[in-house]
Amino acid sequence: MDFKNVTVAGSGVLGSQIAFQTAFKGFDVTIWLRSEGSIERAKPKLERLKGIYLQTMEAWKTNPQAYCRGFADSPDLSADEIDALKEKVVEAFDSLKMTTSYEEAAKDADLIIEAIAEDPAQKIPFYEELAKYMPEKTVLVTNSSTLLPSAFAEYTGRPEKYLALHFANNIWAQNTAEVMGHPGTDQKYYDQVAEFAKAIGMVPICLKKEQPAYVLNTLLVPFLGAGLELWAKDVADPETIDMTWELATGAPNGPMKIIDVVGLTTVYNIEMMKPEAQEPGTLSNKIVTALKEKIDKGEIGINAGKGFYEY
What we know:
Layout: E1 5-9, H1 13-24, E2 28-32, H2 36-60, H3 79-95, E3 97-99, H4 102-106, E4 111-114, H5 120-130, E5 139-142, H6 153-156, E6 162-167, E7 176-180, H7 187-199, E8 203-206, H8 216-232, H9 238-249, H10 255-262, H11 264-272, H12 283-296
Parallel strand pairs: 1-2, 1-4, 2-3, 4-5, 5-6, 7-8
Antiparallel strand pairs: 6-7
Helix pairs in contact: 1-2, 1-3, 2-3, 8-10, 8-12, 11-12
């Protein structure tokens, strides 16, 4: 694996995390964004991540429980070694480059990680435009949480070098990266992407074949959907839904807190893919309508300071 220059397209919840973690692990990272406004919105997310990394590492010096697997292979580091990691955090933040230019984003990229909205109407034009500028060497992956790479391979201009690399949220702590090819993916590039995942501190979860929602979201999406159903049907408020799950199972977070972290827009886009979401009176339509009301008010989750909870 000879990747050095990595471009991340998008700076949402996961796009910003992927870019920051990749830079922290020593890669040259460029973030592609649609507009200057998007660049300005990305900056506080990256500032926030820098703060999280630095504060967590400082806490790690006296509290071994603060250790995160994405920081280092072992929790047994000295204070001086942790300080060296903190210096890398600052260097990573300072090194990040942002651009709205397809050409600049693609020209030297060894790997491009697409992390834009979970919406085929946005992904397809992005791939078609990007294909005009990518050098032959570039491997392209999608961080799509539910969509299959085979649905987009033909639009990339390099189906053999295209596959999925899907991250869990809070990737510095919950450090999984699902690697999933499509039937046309060359094994050589699949292996390179799995190696890259390890290089940025992730544990590669290597899928043998395409699976809608991969492993993680095959398990997670029905759980979040059940929480949304209880909320949209006015069975219980978000706090009660979460409290019930947390007390009864010992889990740290219920579904509504997780949705705030994932982002309401991402969950809305996933729900909108269901045909019944367009049919008035259906439960799916109630869910998307209620989510849209919150999104329109700017209540899109933890990064906005408010979703189902205030932050």
